[in-house]
Batch of 4 targets.
Target 1
Amino acid sequence: MKVYCKKGIYFVYFLFVASLAVGWKPEPAVNRLFLLAKSTNEDVQSMCVMNENKPLFEQGVAESAEEDRQVNEQNSESVRRRVKAVIKKDTFSKVRKNDSTKKTKEVFHASDKSREILERIVEAEAGDQDVRGRRLVANVILNRVRSKKFPNTVKGVVFAHRQFSPVSNGSYYHVKVSGTTKKAVRQALNGVDDSKGALYFMWRRGSDSGNISWFDRELTRLFRYGCHEFFK
């Protein structure tokens, strides 16, 4: 047993001497420890810098979020404006009557401006007529909007060159729209129409001979109601 112990001691001693002889040094391990400590120190310093700049970072994130919110609001407002413009556009649509006949009628979705123009021209042309007489004038205007022969807006039809005398002589701009006229226009816009597709009307006693001759020669007379004769 003692022999083995001595041999072990000699073996360890031999290894130690041999290592000294070949110039073994513990630098690599030390260097590795030094590099590890240095890396750890740099990470710690980086964390400190991040902590110091954290308020600036959070402020930047908040500003970015605020900019995104403003952009989203602007986009939403733009969409709302486009939708609003579409809603205000004058259009026709067919709907069902709530009665036993189940017939369809065309409803005209007029903007506020188009409704005002229609009311003023009806008042100027037929302000002395009953509800039906006024409604028939509104029907003629809307029939023209539907027709490819005329402008496709109420404004375009009413202000077309030399089509309606109240616009030409200026009385259109001075009328006071009555409740009866508003009712007649509302009925016409909601699809009440017994105009038989008339595109023209004339007050024979108030028209010059040239216009009367053109109406009788070029158009088809449909009917008369009140003081107006209606043509197509």
Target 2
Amino acid sequence: MKNRAVSKKYPIRVIAAAAVVIAVLAVLFSAYRRQIYLSRDINILWVGTSIPAGDAGGDYPSMVGELLGDHVQVYNISLSCGTARCGAYEYVSEEDPLGMAGFSHFPRYLLSCLSLSRAEKEELLSEINTSDSLFSVDESYLTERRLSTYYNFTWDGEMKTYLTDYDIDYVVYDMGYNDTDVLDYENSEELLTVTDDRSSYIGASEFIFEKIAEYSPDTEIIIAGHYARDDKPYLWQAQELLAEDTGVAIYKTWEYTGWTDELITAGGSWQDGYWVEDETITDQITVLERWLPDGTHPGYDRSGEANRYLAQIHAELLRGIIY
């Protein structure tokens, strides 16, 4: 009778032990798969304005790549004066279907517009300083290098090349700052206007997103939120609206930098791109002005402190999306 009792219990113990082994193996396998996922090669295309393009103080997209690890490659094609839209919807007409006259006060914005094609820019440049032109530009400014840069910063130029040739996993969309500066629209609610063409920031951005999906269907788009809440109050709201309309991921950088319009005592000044401490200076400046020499460009801080700070924030917020 004793032996029978043991024989009945034995299979149960075997099954229980096997179940434990299977559970442990499943955990180990899951951990192994996650480790492979975390260490996978990731290619990021960063598209933006002069803010991420950088200057003497470096550029934060490159620093983000370093912070995320050796397996992450960041390609930064951001451009000074870069815009999403190529006009203003209030200026749309039969003769000017995209409202390009809205950029007549600053033609570099139009020449640096990402939602224009190379052919459209070639046409624009061929008409410059003629009776058919919407604007004029000093001929000496249009060097061969600048012309090449403008031709490449288009949806079917450099962006298309990276999407089709570089196996891009994510596009970080860091656009919008210059889109606020159209005629009298700076800091205005007009930025929240949505059109079905490229005459608004959101309409042009949606057009660009469609091109990204066309060229690289598996590439995910991530909107990089503006670095501050106060300096251009409608910019981050427009970015949120764009994310809501398209279902694209967004991270809200403005919630983490602390770069506000709060007034503080300077205690120093910017000199040749470096902050020099001087307690005798009691001028009132904003927190943002303390961080950025011109109140706009982190790259103008030649020490690199502003870019490093931004890079840490971007990297942490990106990590929460891509992993």
Target 3
Amino acid sequence: MHNHQTGYDLGAYIRQQFALDKHDIRTYSPLTLAYIGDGIYELMIRSIVVEQGNRQVNKLHQQASRFVKAQAQSEMMETLLPLLSEEEVQIYKRGRNAKSYTTAKNASVNDYRRATGFEALMGYLYLNGNIERLTELVKAAVTDYTPKEPAGTETRNR
């Protein structure tokens, strides 16, 4: 049981359980990093929302969506950029500048590109097993971010 243990590497555990080889993630494309980063970031946000208390799934989804949409991730990068190491900035920029063949449904091109950089950074930290740094950055981002509320919705404290 790994209850509230720091330093726990989910990726390493998955590789071990499924007998997967570890690869040099420096060779991964920024879009591959963003692909896994999108998933791990959403899992973190969903975990935070669920731990705030049991609610209707629709309410959980609405709360989480405010933090995982491209515009939110783009705005969060303003908070994160000054906190990043040179290596982390380079990963972010590689993701931001990657040529993606898809676009977000409800985001500007610039927000979508910055969000892709955000997700690439999340993926890079996750695949490197740097869960503490990943969590530190997500915490800084969501603590400083104020979602724009749709008209007529209530705000819940994080």
Target 4
Amino acid sequence: MKITFVQKQLNSKITENELLKISKERSDFVLFPARVLLDLHHSPQESVNRYDSILDQWMDVSEKHKGVLIAGTLYRKLANGSIIESVPIIQDLNFIDHYDLQKPNAPINQTSESETVFIMAGVRFGLLAGKDYEDQSILEALQKKGIQTVFILDGLVNTRSYEEDLEYFFQMAQDYDFNIFRICGYDTKKKILGRSLVATPSGIQWKVGKMEEDKDIIKTIHFAQANPFL
């Protein structure tokens, strides 16, 4: 399994240079942070108006890279008029599905029940965004389904120190027997920090350095996992 992490400043466009780098990697998965293309000053009601524009930007990325895009988060309006924060999943210029956040980050009407487990590129994986990874019941539900691979899209204020963050995700990997692939965004005020990492039950396999918490980073890793469908 080949995974590309795209750690970026939130509310910033994906540049042509980044598109070129991503396309050259030919990864199975490309991970983007939650809220990467959203204006952090906009309300969910304001952001939902940009749904089509943001999805078009992701399609531009998919045109350059045919693998699976775990494409940050956006706000969308459901048939009943409620608004929800979701992760669009895209592959080879095809919109595949949304993952709807289970634990909202804002006081919006949460009524959708999307899938939490997906099978793509030969891998069965769980997907978490926002505050979902802090909810024990959500983690236990993934564990009961036998999920080994978990992608976490982060882009929120974090009060843990750098060292505490590493310990937090290592402990989670141990407790639930997960291989965790966490992609982070950051803001210019350094309230939201870029601490992308890979945590497994045996330890932290890769992490962004402490001096790179406010840096744009594109990193590709190869990860061998036995029995990905178990």
